[in-house]
Amino acid sequence: IVEGIQDRKGGNITVLDMTVLENTITSYFVICDGTSNVQVDAIADSVEEYVRENLGEKPFHVEGRTNAQWILLDYLDVVVHVFQEPVRQFFQIEQLWADAPATHYGA
Q1: What is the pLDDT of residues 45-83, one digit of tens each?
Q2: CA dihedral in degrees (28, 31, 37, 39; nearest 10)?
Q3: CA angle, 21 as apex, 15 and 25 as ends, to 5°?
Q4: Which helix (H) or strand (E) is 98 found in, with range?
């Protein structure tokens, strides 16, 4: 997933390990951002392509394709959030799960 994001120049990649928390809906959140709706859509496409080619999996559910400000790809054990930068700053979902260990990848 991270490679798919990096392939389309997604920025500020953060992986939250939710397995150490109780009563979570997934094992991992992967969060990143893009600078426009075109880039956000391209990042989401790239993630879907990488996961399909390397793991043979399709997302269980996808939301946000219409306006591409925040696209969510739900792989059940992993949920990918692809934001436009201002939308990510507004919602600050990393702060909601601040107790989860975070791994950050370069832009």
Answers
A1: 999 999 999 999 999 999 999 999 999 999 999 999 999
A2: -100
A3: 75
A4: none
Where do the DSSP E strands lie in 35-101? 61-63, 70-74, 78-84
Written as six digits, the tokens of 78 are 């992993």
- Confidence band of 98 (pLDDT split at 50, 70, 90): very high
Single out the residue of 65, 49, 39 nearest to residue 1, CA to CA.
49
- 3-class secondary structure, 31: strand
**Which pLDDT belongs to residue 76?**
95
Q: Helix, strand, or coil here: 2?
A: helix
Q: What is the rounded end-to-end Cα distance, in angstroms, of the chain?
A: 14
